């Protein structure tokens, strides 16, 4: 049995601000020697949002208030190494990252939650569903890679997106190629990259050698939100998803979106999450 570490909630709540019609609280939690930074807003059943590789919770700034005003409690734990969150320690795995999310859900007394992971964030969502199934009522994967090969040129553009020393226009061309559907504004992703965080997250994924967590939908209902023009993870069929993820999969395809998805079509992503959450037992 995995050892659970005691966690304490610091009494300090850092300056709330308004996002749409909801007030966002920024909190800090202590889990042993680890500090977890958490954004929270809204009231109702809980939805937890996990961002993509090397990116922070600001990616959900347009989605979170939509969920909150629809009647949900939205929790956004900041990835380790971003903001006030402690960096990932050497040797950490996806199980350690999932334990941070579990601590946030428990501190807020928000279980069971719908846990949604964007792109690489889907790894943590699925590991949490495997390790702590009692905390999870459903899992949502947003533009998640499910095992397909990535074109070498696209992979090169992914790496270039984290290379902040490149000229802005060169980085912009890589962002357009790898992440955004034609016609969508890739400039919104010029900032917000954390190269050291992405390296630590990749190392944690590589150090996670067990594979039982890959089939999260064996235990929980699972929503796969595909981006119609995703150059990294082309939309799989429902049959392919059920073969790789388990039988309880629902599929939604968002048009005019690439792998970035969340900043491209926030209204459609929020609508898919709301509809799925309202249908969960």
Automatic annotation (TrEMBL):
Gene3D superfamilies linked to this entry: alpha/beta hydrolase
Domain called AB hydrolase-1: residue spans: 47-272
Organism of this sequence: Muricoccus roseus
Highest taxon above the source species: Bacteria
Keywords tagged on the record: Signal
Signal peptide, first to last residue: 1-21
Protein name as annotated: Pimeloyl-ACP methyl ester carboxylesterase
Pfam families: Abhydrolase_6 (PF12697)
